[in-house]
Amino acid sequence: MDIFLHTSPLAKYTRNTDSRYLFSFFEGNHYFPDIHFDTEPSLLTGGLDLCQLLGSRILSKFGVSVHSHRSLYRYSSLSYLSSSAFRHHQYEAILSHGYFPVSNSDNLPPIIWETGMLGLEFLNYFHPQAATAERAWKIEREVKQQIGQRAALIGISYPAAADRFRDLLPSLAEKVRVLPHFLPHLKLSDWDRVVSKYTHRNKVKLTFIGNQAKRKGLEDLYTALQQLSSDLQDILEITVVSSFLDGFIPIPPHLSITYSRDLKPSEINSILENTHIYCMPSRSESYGLVYVEAMATGCTVIAPQREAQDYLLDGGKAGLLVEPNNIEALVSALTIAITEPENCLQLAKNAWERVQTHLGPEPAAAAYRSAFQELAS
Question: How far apart are CA 13 and CA 364, in angstroms?
Answer without folding.
Answer: 24
